[in-house]
């Protein structure tokens, strides 16, 4: 429920009776609503979502190139393509990129774009904070990658175990510092975004949208945001200690001074395991929207899906030490974590069964998003089963740090998260950009990626059990690993080819005809408005009476219990006349949050501080100044300014008296709050 | 027609799977965790095998259900009717929550005892070996067998448990010889214990399994299992210290070994002793030429070219700490002649 009471519409006194202030006299308020400038200053959750997605796709290409380097090096024994150090940089940056700069921001893209639309809100709770999250994420990513030009990239693996990472004798270059500082920066972005999205979901749902009427994607994203909220501080602490060891000679991980190297491992994995669920739960949410849409059935067992997601969120905190079964924890800890790891398979299994039950007796339409979604279910089963074998701790000592593990987590994060992301991208592309992606090219993309993925990572199960350790730049002849490595390398080239097809599809889609508001005949509120949605999302505030609200508005049962399409449903923004139904009356005057320069300026301060720590403290001082000035500028700037760009929507039709938003609202639940 | 396509796909998948499975069996894999060669590796393996088959069964059932649903419930062209709108079935869902939990509980019952068994104290009749991991090689010493120190090659008696007390001089490593047992981290500031055993004499491959820096890939090892008599003979041979050469090329090499600074890091017992509070920073060379491999066990010691290439450029192994400077070909010949006497 939204916070409900009889408070008047919260409207900041900006406009004719308020005196306009130029914030600190530094900037004129940005006014652009189109062109590149509008992107730099936008606080619109949709634009920010698109920027998150586009940036993540660029990093996906870069991380993919690193993967191709790795696979090319390993195609034959004694590979000479990369030096050991270059190889170590490649796998370190591949892992770091894919986790922190691809999957996390990609899921942030979906959450940003979709959550307000799915819960019937006009924007997120804190739009400027949202912009700040994106710009900080971008700043952190660019900072991390600048290491390649400033003395060498990190090369200690994405786990950067101490004392390899903290001791300057073992990692003398600055790469490790770039990693430590870069991830602290992106961590701030994740935290800000988590707070923002949690408040959005809790506070800004449309009238009638109880928690158990929320789309499952919103639920899964909400759980992931809570995990972020609690996990990011743990890694930040670890990174902070590591930074002090390296930059200021502290001894948190210094074995010579009595530190225990296991401290880093515990801190890292207390973050690292919930992180896995941060990466997979929203993807589960995505396919839980896609599968019902194309099975033409509601999600089987919605409450079970919600509670199993929440259960995974809780249990995810109790399994971290299964990453450390070889670390010498002692049998009691190992046994405890072995058991907890086995039992986290239960709620995950529930999800798999419920998806299959959703398919069962449906009328499955194998569009591209559906293909990716079903492939996720199938491939995640493999990743889940290999995960169960890890829980058998004695045998995990054989699997740990081998290609079997590499196979496992790629089946979870690529076969799972990335396939879910592609399902979502194909599904919501027409909503976001107003054009369909080609189904034909999309199917070619899917099958090539499906084949390439399984060819790459399937053989790695065998390689690992045959004793090939991960993170090894080379292997000797005669180990029996040649064929499987060769297959895996060919598979990786297929994945690369499929990615090119996907880019081709995107480029070509610009010429496709308009998709229409609801091309898939889907179930949730974002499909009730035009594609792409108007800046203010909904012309009328939707009032929700059940799960899958939009579907129930479109369809009802006739006297014989047959499902028929209604002809009296109403679109919630102005859509083309060919769509059927009627369009909502135009909105009353709506104040939207105004664009602002401050988020991007503030974000600029952070990498400056970080560079300063590595090169000269003067830069840090400058960065700190930028940061503080931005905080002041930000606070002095009114969040809503009618004279600024896209801050104000005037009605474009004035032909009705009644206000359907409240008249049709039996819940009489409150009013739209202006985001601030 | 669509169904036909799927069948064609299945026909294609069948042989593809066969190729994969056969590929797995083809060829000799000396480091194969699926081919245990001792009781510890076997007890771990025996735990895995039933779990593997349960996983296969679940895999077949679940994937079968998916494939069946995908084929059977595909929407026909032009079929616009809506299927029955099922929202769930609590009894069914509770069922498929409890059933996996039961299967996992059974797994747990078998797993937990093995965890404690493998972590048990030092077994009776075992021999003790101290393992020291260093970037990027292994030192093995035998405190109960007198003064024996070796590098990268761990000699053990077959048919007897070998209790390892392991620590690291620098970063975290992990000791792993898959056919003899799983892996255990070798961590600075801690002593981790681990037991391995080989049923039969033979050579068992292994390598560092925890990423430890530039040459992590080049930190390999060999476990050489002897029969009881062979092991005693090996111990005996390790107690025989080589004599310092007094004339010829080898004597020149003996001089060079000191003047070039080799003796600052490499022990040659009876000839050069490294003074160091911790273990020497470089492999003990006392019985170098009784080994088969060197430099993290990546080069063949029986191949003279490899040894000479190493003396010319120890940096050919990434991250190697060895510094020797420019050597003339004559120096190399002399050093080789000396090293060859270390048996």
Describe the structure in brief.
The complex is a heterodimer of chains A (676) and B (343). Chain A is mainly α.
Structure description:
The complex is a heterodimer of chains A (676) and B (343). Chain A is mainly alpha-helical and 676 residues long. Helix content of chain A is 58%, strand content 2%. Chain A contains 18 helices and six strands. In chain A, the strands form three sheets. Chain A has a two-stranded antiparallel sheet. A two-stranded parallel ribbon of chain A has the order 3-4. A two-stranded antiparallel ribbon of chain A has the order 5-6. In chain A, strand 1 and strand 2 (563-565) form a beta hairpin. In chain A, helix 7 (262-295) packs parallel to helix 9. The longest helix of chain A is centred in the N-terminal third of the chain and has 35 residues, at 84-118. Chain A is globular and about 75 Å long. Chain B has 343 residues and is an alpha+beta fold. Chain B has seven helices and twelve strands. Chain B has helices spanning 2-25, 39-72, 90-118, 228-239, 248-259, 304-312, 329-340; strands at 127-134, 137-141, 149-151, 153-157, 162-168, 173-175, 184-186, 192-196, 202-207, 220-226, 293-294, 299-300. In chain B, the strands form four sheets. Chain B has a five-stranded mixed sheet with strand order 3-2-1-5-8. In chain B, a hairpin with a 7-residue loop joins strand 2 (137-141) and strand 3 (149-151). In chain B, helix 2 (39-72) packs antiparallel against helix 3 and helix 5 packs across helix 7 (329-340). Chains A and B meet through helix 3, helix 8, helix 9, helix 10 and helix 11 of A and helix 1, helix 2 and helix 3 of B.
């Amino acid at each position: 429920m939204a916070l409900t009471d009889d408070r008047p519409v919260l409207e900041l006194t900006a406009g004719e009776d308020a005196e306009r202030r130029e914030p600190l006299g530094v900037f004129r308020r940005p006014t652009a609503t189109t062109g590149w400038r509008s992107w730099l200053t936008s606080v619109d959750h949709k634009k920010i979502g698109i920027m998150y997605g586009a940036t993540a796709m660029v990093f996906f290409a870069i991380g993919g190139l690193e993967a191709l380097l790795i696979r090319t090096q390993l195609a034959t024994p004694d590979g000479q393509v990369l030096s050991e150090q270059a190889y170590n940089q490649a796998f370190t940056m591949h892992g770091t990129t894919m986790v922190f700069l691809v999957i996390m921001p990609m899921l942030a893209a979906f959450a940003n774009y979709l959550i307000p639309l799915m819960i019937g809100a006009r924007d997120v709770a804190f739009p400027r904070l949202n912009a700040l999250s994106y710009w900080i994420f971008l700043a952190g990513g660019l900072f991390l990658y600048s290491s390649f030009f400033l003395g060498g990239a990190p090369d200690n693996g994405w786990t950067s175990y101490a004392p390899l990472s903290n001791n300057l004798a073992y990692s003398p270059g600055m790469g490790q510092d770039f990693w430590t500082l870069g991830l602290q920066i992106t961590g701030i972005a994740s935290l800000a975004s988590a707070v923002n999205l949690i408040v959005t979901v809790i506070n800004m749902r449309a009238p009638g949208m109880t928690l158990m009427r929320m789309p499952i994607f919103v639920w899964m994203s909400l759980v992931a945001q809570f995990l972020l909220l609690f996990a990011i501080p743990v890694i930040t602490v670890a990174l902070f200690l590591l930074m002090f060891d390296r930059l200021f000679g502290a001894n948190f991980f210094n074995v010579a001074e009595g530190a225990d190297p296991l401290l880093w491992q515990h801190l890292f994995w207390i973050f690292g395991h919930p992180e896995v669920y941060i990466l997979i739960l929203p993807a589960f949410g995505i396919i839980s929207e896609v599968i019902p849409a194309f099975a033409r059935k509601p999600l089987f067992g919605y409450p079970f899906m919600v509670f199993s997601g929440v259960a995974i969120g809780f249990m995810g905190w109790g399994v971290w030490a299964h990453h450390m079964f070889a670390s010498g924890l002692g049998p009691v800890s190992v046994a405890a974590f072995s058991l907890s790891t086995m039992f986290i398979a239960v709620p995950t299994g529930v999800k798999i069964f419920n998806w299959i039950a959703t398919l069962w007796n449906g009328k499955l339409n194998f569009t591209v998003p559906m293909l990716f979604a079903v492939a996720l279910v199938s491939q995640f089963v493999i990743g889940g089963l290999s995960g169960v074998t890890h829980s058998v701790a004695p045998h995990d000592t054989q699997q740990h740090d081998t290609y079997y593990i590499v196979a496992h987590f790629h089946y979870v994060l690529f076969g799972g998260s990335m396939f879910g992301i592609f399902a979502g991208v194909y599904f919501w592309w027409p909503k976001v950009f107003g054009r369909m992606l080609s189904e034909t090219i999309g199917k070619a993309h899917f099958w090539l990626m499906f084949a390439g993925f399984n060819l790459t990572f399937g053989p790695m199960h065998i390689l690992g059990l045959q004793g090939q350790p991960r993170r090894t730049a080379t292997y000797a002849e005669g180990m029996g690993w040649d064929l499987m490595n060769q297959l895996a390398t060919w598979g990786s080239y297929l994945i690369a080819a499929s990615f090119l097809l996907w880019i081709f599809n995107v480029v070509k889609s610009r010429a496709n005809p308009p998709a229409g508001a609801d091309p898939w005949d889907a179930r949730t509120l974002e499909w009730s408005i035009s594609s792409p949605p108007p800046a203010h999302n909904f012309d009328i505030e939707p009032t929700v009476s059940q799960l899958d609200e939009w579907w129930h508005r479109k369809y009802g049962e006739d006297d014989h219990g047959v499902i028929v399409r209604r002809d009296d449903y109403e679109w919630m923004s102005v859509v083309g006349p060919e769509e059927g139904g009627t369009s909502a009356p135009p909105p009353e005057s709506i104040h939207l949050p105004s664009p602002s320069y401050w988020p991007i300026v503030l974000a600029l301060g952070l990498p400056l501080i970080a560079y300063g720590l590595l090169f000269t403290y003067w830069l840090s001082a400058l960065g700190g100044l930028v940061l503080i000035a931005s905080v002041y500028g930000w606070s002095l700037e009114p969040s809503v300014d009618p004279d600024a760009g896209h801050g104000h929507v005037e009605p474009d039709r004035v032909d009705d008296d009644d206000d359907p938003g409240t008249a049709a609202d039996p819940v009489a639940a409150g009013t739209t709050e202006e985001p601030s | 027609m669509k169904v036909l396509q799927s069948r064609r796909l299945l026909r294609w998948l069948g042989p593809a799977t066969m190729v994969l499975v056969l590929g797995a069996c083809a060829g000799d894999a000396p480091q194969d965790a699926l081919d245990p060669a001792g009781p510890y590796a076997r007890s771990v393996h025996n735990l895995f095998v039933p779990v593997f088959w349960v996983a296969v069964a679940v895999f077949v059932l679940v994937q079968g259900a998916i494939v069946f649903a995908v084929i059977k419930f595909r929407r026909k062209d032009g079929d616009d009717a809506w299927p029955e709108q099922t929202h769930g079935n609590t009894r069914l869902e509770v069922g498929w929550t409890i059933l996996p939990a039961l299967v996992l509980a059974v797994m747990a019952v078998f797993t937990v005892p093995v965890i404690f068994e493998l972590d048990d104290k030092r077994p009776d009749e075992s021999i003790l070996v101290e393992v020291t991991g260093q970037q990027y090689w292994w030192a093995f010493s035998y405190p109960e067998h007198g003064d024996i120190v070796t590098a990268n090659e761990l000699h053990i008696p077959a048919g007897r448990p070998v209790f390892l007390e392991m620590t690291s001089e620098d970063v975290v490593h992990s000791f792993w010889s898959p056919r003899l047992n799983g892996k255990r981290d070798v961590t600075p500031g801690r002593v981790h214990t681990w037991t391995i055993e080989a049923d039969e004499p033979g050579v068992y491959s292994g390598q560092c399994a925890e990423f430890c820096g530039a040459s992590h890939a080049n930190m390999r090892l060999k476990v050489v299992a002897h029969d009881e008599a062979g092991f005693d003979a090996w111990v005996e041979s390790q107690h025989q210290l080589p004599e310092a050469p007094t004339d010829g090329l080898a004597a020149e090499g003996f001089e060079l070994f000191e003047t070039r600074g080799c003796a600052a890091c490499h022990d040659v017992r009876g000839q050069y002793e490294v003074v160091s509070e911790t273990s020497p920073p470089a492999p003990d060379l006392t019985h170098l030429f009784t080994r088969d491999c060197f430099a993290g066990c990546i080069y063949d010691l029986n191949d003279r070219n490899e040894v000479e290439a190493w003396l010319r450029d120890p940096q050919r192994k990434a991250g190697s700490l060895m510094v020797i400077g420019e050597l003339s070909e004559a120096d190399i010949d002399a050093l080789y002649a000396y090293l060859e006497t270390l048996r």
